[in-house]
Hints:
103 residues; 3-stranded mixed sheet
Amino acid sequence: MKSRTNAPTAKSFNTNFASLYDRIGEAGSKPSNMWCGDEGAWQVVEQLNRDAGYEPVYAGPLENAAAQESFIKLTSGISQGGWARSCIGLRLLIGSESTIEKG
């Protein structure tokens, strides 16, 4: 994208499970959303995150986008392996341990 527009660029909204987006309001605390990108994108990306109900977490410059993608693979693997129920972030997002099936 940046190579075509030469505009500030960011990567965001790809590290959380989309199936939980409509349940953000049920979280006991505001969930976070990681993003990386150019300084020029900072204000817009942070506001988009807040508007969506997330606390933005800056993960560094756009050069970190590949590391952010690797993080997605890791969290997906944890979820597929059944360990997602033990992750504090998912417990907070879901609401409470009582709503999570015991494995």
